[in-house]
Design brief:
Glutaredoxin; 4-stranded mixed sheet
């Protein structure tokens, strides 16, 4: 299995953020979490990209907003059901 670079921008109390993280863990993918509620610089990074919501997941630089299972699978090279 290849090892993509995955960055998950999250925030406290975000149910879709939790879904993304559980989804990635269940598939065995490691990711870097950047919580904008805890670290202001992560929130600022999103604002610079004109992104104002979480989760914002980057897979090898490709953005997935919210929890979009099919889009995540495609970017991770996982066959769609």
């Amino acid at each position: 299995m290849f090892s993509p670079e995955i960055i998950v921008y999250s925030s406290n109390g975000c149910s879709y953020c939790k879904k993304v993280k559980v989804f990635l863990k269940e598939l065995g993918f490691e990711y870097e979490e950047r919580n904008g509620s805890i670290h202001k610089e992560y929130f600022d990074q999103l604002k610079e990209k004109k992104i104002f919501g979480t989760p914002a997941t980057f897979v090898n630089g490709n953005l997935v907003l919210g929890f979009q299972e099919k889009k995540l699978k495609k970017l991770l090279g996982i066959p769609l059901d």
